[in-house]
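My current task is to audit a protein record that another person submitted. I have pasted the whole thing underneath without changing anything:
***
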Amino acid sequence: MAKRRSSYRRRRTTSASRSYSTTRKTRRRRVSRQTGWFAKASVRKLWKRLRSWFMVVSIGASLALALCMVIVQSAANNRVYKTMSEMPNYHVALVLGAGVQPNGALSWTLRHRVNTAIDLYNAGRVEKILMSGDNRVQNYNEPQRMADYAVSQGVPSSDVVMDYAGRRTYDSVYRAKNIFLLDKLVIVTQGYHLPRALFLARSVGLEAYGVAAPATSDSRAPIREYPASISAVIDAYVLHPSPVMGKIEPID
């Protein structure tokens, strides 16, 4: 009789233990499911917020880009000569640098710019050519190469002026105004670059007009004008940077 009671008690204890263990497992599963659900919900909520912020930032950036492009492009309205015959005479043509190859040859983009300026000179439309380029390191002299090429094509060296600190478009037009003391000039560069160059020239107080040089097959060049236009607007209205300066060199 005592054995039966003991056996019965063991069975009850075992059954209760199993029931308790099962209840604990069930509770753990519920907690785990709830925790997983909350975690997934939090991730979904975070993703929605990030997506909303990304859309806001994207729309804002697109509007800013569009506004900058409109501001820059409007600078070229009625200021770009389509033919040489409609162009009056200017004292100086400003040629903006565009890269020199390791062997010293002008890049095709730059060669087209210099050739266009030479054509203007030979036609009597300009009296002087200002070659503006980068010369921040000793073994890279962009304006000197540009001048050498123009002289090799028959332009007298006395009519070619070099600006060795034209590291970027803003620097070139700023120095044309403040170093070479020019108030009016014609800028020679590719058509996609002219609006930005004219916008920056106007921002520093230059009365500038443009002549478009032939473009090359480089499809990346016009695309670079999008971020460059934003930078130009920031320089003109916010930063007002001061380029490398030097002694005053008026162009006679």
